[in-house]
Amino acid sequence: MWLADRLANLVSGLGGQRDKTTGNLHVHVPRARAELDAAYRDNWLARKVVDIVPFDMLREWRAWQAPPEVAAALAASEERLSLRDRLLRALRLARLHGGAALLIGDGAPDPGLPLDPETVGQGALRYLHVLPRAAIQAGPIERDPLSPWFGEPTVYTIAGGQAVHPSRVVRLLGAALPDAETGDAFGDSVLQALLEAIDQASAACAHIAAMLPEAKQDVISVPGLSQALSTEDGTRLLTERFAYAARMKGLFGMLLLEGDGRSPEGERYQQKQLDFSGLPEVARLFLQVAAGAADIPVTRLLGQSPAGLNATGESDLRNYHDHIAARQAVELTPAIARLDRLLIRDALGRSDPALRYAWRPLAQASEREKAEIGRLKAETAATLAREGVVPPAVLGRGVEGWLSAADLFPGIAAAFGRPAG
């Protein structure tokens, strides 16, 4: 006898043959690219779900932990290659179509050969091209665990059948697949699992909007209406009569009817109104479900302040910022590590394994908060100087770097003789 490890109740039928949910079955139905593109172009909610996360991941960009002249050279290479713009476009395409790629160009005659970082000199990188998923095909996945390319395609093919070595490609994924062997080295569109919730939220708002013209309706009971409509002349006369009555109501605010409204021969006038009191909550519920499915707080997705007593939304935004920071560290940083190694050589003409960078936080401090942080740091520096724990030259260098990067006093970085940031 086989035992199923699930909740069952012999009295209510829960989990048994009488349970209406026992026939539920999840079936994967891939969304066609045309449908994804149409949703992105025509549905504001789908577009925001795709765009918000990449934008927030790159909104404040990153800060290289390096001497000012080195950081300036790296920033110049990023700007020359339009790295931030290219990366934003690629991340959006990856979320929409399940994958995208950045093609690294160094002018090599045969892109099918590996790109050795040690051969890249200063200013050697020529371009970064964004390739949608349809413009690049991945070859067989490397299955040798001893290969440095394990888990990656052994080769890519771009337009015209040109082979490209994986060392020249930065692969970006949308929603990860449960098993890499089930796909083509890319992932699913984030809309694959979210489009149903998005459609339901959009439909709820659309249904409420469709009810607005029906919010107030005039109802007139006409004795012998069926008989009057049975002939063309009767229909015409009745239509003209009430069209004229409607014009009188619009012009003079009154409606003339025959009879006293109570006798069988008289016409009776009523006005019906729809009750919209609970509909905003219904629409808000569907929008909250869509926001939860997208892992974006309602305050960010809809741009609205939270409702309720003492509700500020700060905890939601803080959790969201932590989520974005985690994705930057776990997903984005490893994805562009290969490109960063080439970028360092392009900017400096040499490798520097010690170079690191940090993603700037999304939550920017207010002027008051900056001043308070500055006061605490100044007190700490004064204490260190008074106690003699840190050599004065070292401490002075640290305070100089902090003031140059803290944006507390505009122009102080130039006064110190170093570039800001």
Folded structure, characterized:
This is DUF1073 domain-containing protein. InterPro entries: Acb1-like_N, Phage-assoc_HI1409. The chain has 421 residues and is mainly alpha-helical. It has 3 domains: 242 residues, no CATH class; 58 residues, no CATH class; 54 residues, no CATH class. The protein has 14 helices and 10 strands. It has a 3-stranded antiparallel β-sheet, with helices on one face. A 3-stranded antiparallel β-sheet has the order 4-5-6, with no helix packed on it. A hairpin with a 3-residue loop joins β5 and β6. The longest helix has 22 residues. The protein is elongated and about 105 Å long.
Characteristic key phrases:
421 residues; mainly alpha; 3 domains; 3-stranded antiparallel beta sheet; 14 helices; 10 strands; 11% strand
Summarize the structure.
The protein is built from 14 helices and 10 strands.
Put simply, the count of helices is 14
The biggest sheet, with number of strands, parallel, antiparallel or mixed sense and barrel status, is: 3 strands, antiparallel
The average pLDDT is 84
Tally of structural domains: 3
Identify the overall geometry. Answer: elongated
C-alpha termini separation:
70 Å
**Which structural class do the helices and strands define?**
mainly alpha
Order of strands across the widest beta sheet? 3-2-7
Q: What fraction strand? A: 5-15%
Based on DSSP secondary structure assignment, what is the total number of beta strands? Answer: 10
Helix-strand string: HHEHHEEEEEEHEHHEHHHHEHHH
Radius of gyration: 33 Å
